[in-house]
Design brief:
It holds the Pfam family zf-RVT. It comes from Solanum verrucosum. This is Reverse transcriptase zinc-binding domain-containing protein. This protein is an all-alpha fold. Helices cover 62% and strands 0% of the residues. The protein is built from six helices and no strands.
């Protein structure tokens, strides 16, 4: 675009809007669905900020219990990683993952990251899901 070439700029995830960092990671319908899945697991409702920077500031300033603090800190990185890898898969391979499979893959990725950490380890995926509770 800087060299004055006309290129099609379309989000590979929703195929509707132009792709920007804020759209891809926050405002795309696929991204919003993923964020909302995690919010519902934590029992939260949240108004999506305008920018990724604002999202990180809001996320890091949220006070959570010690039992979920480590999981809470990994969630944004996991969401961004999963969105980026899925975006690249759609862009370079042309194969979209069904949304339910994509969401499950993101949860499994987070579960794997939590188990790799020396801070917290859970034996089963169901135990992991039930451990996500902000009230602890």
């Amino acid at each position: 675009m800087r060299r004055k070439f006309q290129i099609v700029n379309r989000c590979y995830m929703c195929l509707c809007n132009s792709e920007s960092i804020n759209h891809l990671f926050l405002h795309c319908t696929v991204a919003t669905g993923l964020w909302n899945m995690f919010f519902s697991l934590f029992g939260l409702t949240w108004v999506m900020p305008r920018s990724l920077r604002e999202a990180f500031v809001c996320w890091s300033s949220w006070k959570v219990g010690k039992s979920v603090k480590h999981i809470w800190s990994l969630v944004p990185a996991c969401i961004l990683w999963c969105l980026w890898t899925e975006r690249n898969k759609r862009c370079f391979d042309g194969t979209p993952t069904p949304i339910f499979t994509f969401k499950a893959r993101c949860l499994i990725t987070l579960f794997g990251w939590v188990n790799l950490s020396p801070v917290l380890s859970v034996d089963s995926f169901l135990e992991f899901i039930s451990s996500i509770d902000l009230c602890c």
